[in-house]
Design a protein that fits this description.
The structure is a single chain. With about 90 residues, the protein is mainly beta. It has one domain: Nucleic acid-binding proteins (OB fold (Dihydrolipoamide Acetyltransferase, E2P), Beta Barrel). The chain contains 1 helix and 5 strands. The protein has a 5-stranded mixed β-barrel. The radius of gyration is 14 Å and the shape is globular. About 15% of the residues are buried.
Length: about 90
Amino acid sequence: MRQTGTVKLFVPTKGYGFIIPDNGGKDVFVYYKDVKGGKLGFGDRVSYEIGKGLKTAKAIKVKVLAVAYADEKNWHDFIGDVPQKDEDDG
């Protein structure tokens, strides 16, 4: 059964994030390989199914219904740049 929700957080450099389900309950983990097109952004509206993850349930067969910040510049103005790992950090 497909559910809908809003992307709470997605870290492109890590390839994962979380979705806030419309029906309430705990946030749902999402991995980029489970997203059609592989891209999500903060505030995007999505539909998904629930699958089994390693530790908890996760979103699978994720489809973007509406993009919240189509202009990447506006997204960065709102959320800020994603911190990059320093090469010295190991």
